[in-house]
Structure prediction request, 340 residues.
Amino acid sequence: MALKEGLRPRKRIFWLILLALGLLGLLLLNWLPEVRHLEVFIPMGVCPSVTMLQLRDNFTGVLRPWARPEVLTCTSWGAPIIWDGTFNPVIAQKKARRQNLTVGLTVFAVGRYLEKYLARFLESAEQHFMVGQRVVYYVFTERPAAVPRVALGPSRQLRVEHVVRERRWQDVSMARMRTLHEALGGRLGREAHFVFCMDVDQHFSSAFGPEALAESVAQLHAWHYHWPRWLLPFERDSRSAAALAQGEGDFYYHAALFGGSVATLRRLTGHCARGQEQDRARGLEARWHDESHLNKFFWLHKPAKVLSPEFCWSPEIGRRVEIHRPRLLSAPKEYAILRD
Prediction:
């Protein structure tokens, strides 16, 4: 008995040291670029051979996960993680055309973000987003008259929806889910079969095609895809509707890009909007706002497809050998200028 009592303080000290090392590692990964380069040595895992043989969907046919042995190409629940080289873009285009789809793309351009980013976002989307498919853009802004004129290709339309500008940028971010939920229940939901929701402070740099389509689509966060689960920045305040307990969470997903069918996105945005309202009623705010609630949804309802960081990359991270062909590139963050 005395021996057990003596071991308890040592065990407590061990866990405190482990926690301190983890926090130190998180700080180093976030703020020291030289140390961030070491994260490439953290293994991503390996897709089991049996799962590899079964990976397919309605838009890409049979996938080729063995073409990218250096990265993780499937999830533990059997969903594909789409990397360059694992799909045939020609087959994806043909399958999408046969289904006669309309794809929606939503973006919020509020405050100074409109002048700074919207034109390039739309112009690059015309070059690279779902080329050859029917597309409807939905721009949400408090200044519809200021939306730039962009030359659109055949079967591509632009809708501008007025939104009220929120007082704080955090509220702009969080109100997005409520606004999208309403839009998906209205004209957007009637016009489109699948919808992608994206941040405006990025631009397309290469083809973003039907290979990304699925019932629900999550985006691996470019800054966190190598990190072990216990270091991922999930919401940990148990009082929050977005909270995930230690040991919960699969990957950390980026709210700058998510998508899916209209029905699934209605559920997703409804879940996030309700969670935010619950938190607000309790005087809480999740650490990463709507992104925290998005991650909670995808923990409870696993995405049918996960996009690799190639689909939404940050040049600030630097070069990574596994990033062959970025589809979207985020702009440098200029919060001091853009956020009041």
User: Anything to note?
Assistant: The mean pLDDT is 88. The CA atoms of residues 310 and 323 lie 6 Å apart.
